[in-house]
Amino acid sequence: MCLYSIAAVATTLARDILFDQHHVRTISTYSETDDVYYGAPAVLGRGGVQRRIKPDLSAEEQKSLEKSIKSMKEIIEKNQ
């Protein structure tokens, strides 16, 4: 059953890109500001990611995101 879910998501993302649908999807994209890839809402179209959408986060959510980004960077640094 899990394999079907992966195929369904891949099909949905491919359709969004091929048909230039400009749907908002939560996908991993590169953040130049944070210099790391992480999941965030983005608009998908013919050229791939058209734009990232920065959600309004509470102070607590922003702090958690920053902590996660810091952790990811530390892991990347240790494994290079």
Word description of this protein:
With 80 residues, the protein is α+β, with helices and mostly antiparallel strands. It has a single domain (2-78), classed as L-2-Hydroxyisocaproate Dehydrogenase, Chain A, domain 2. The chain has two helices and three strands. The protein has helices at residues 2-18, 59-78; strands spanning 23-31, 36-45, 48-52. It has a three-stranded antiparallel beta sheet with strand order 1-2-3. The mean pLDDT is 93.
Helix content: 40-55%
What is the terminal-to-terminal distance?
35 Å
CATH superfamily: Lactate dehydrogenase/glycoside hydrolase, family 4, C-terminal
CATH class: Alpha Beta
| Basic shape | globular
Structural class of the helices, strands and pairings?
alpha+beta
The name CATH uses for the topology is L-2-Hydroxyisocaproate Dehydrogenase, Chain A, domain 2
H/E topology pattern:
HEEEH
Number of helices: 2
Average predicted local confidence, pLDDT:
93
Describe this structure in a few short sentences:
The chain is built from 2 helices and 3 strands.
Keywords:
80 residues; alpha+beta; L-2-Hydroxyisocaproate Dehydrogenase, Chain A, domain 2; three-stranded antiparallel beta sheet; 3 strands
Secondary structure elements and pairings:
Blueprint: H1 2-18, E1 23-31, E2 36-45, E3 48-52, H2 59-78
Antiparallel strand pairs: 1-2, 2-3
